[in-house]
Amino acid sequence: MALEDICRFKDRGLRTSEKNSAIPLDFFTPPSANSASFCLPNHSTTVRRPFPLSHGTTTLGFIFQGGVIAAADTRASAGGGADCMLWERILTREIRLYQLRHRRRLSIRGTAKLLSFMLHPFKGTEVCVALTLCGWDKEAGDCLIYVCSDGARLQGDIFSVGSGSPYAYGVLDGGLKWSLSKDEAISLAREAVFRATHRDAYSGNNVDLFHITAQGWSQRKREDLKEEYYRDMEKRSKDRREKIKRE
Amino acid sequence: MLSAQGFGDPGKMKDYHYTGPVEHKFSPYAFNGGTVLAVAGEDFAIVASDTRLSEGYSIHSRDSPKCYKLTDTTVIGCSGFHGDCLTLTKIIDARLKMYKHSNNKTMTSGAIAAMLSTILYGRRFFPYYVYNIIGGLDEEGKGAVYSFDPVGSYQRDTYKAGGSASAMLQPLLDNQIGFKNMEGVEQVPLTQDKAVQLVKDVFISAAERDVYTGDALRVCIITKEGINEQTIPLRKD
Question: What residues in A contact B25, CB-CB < 8 Å?
Answer without folding.
Answer: 48
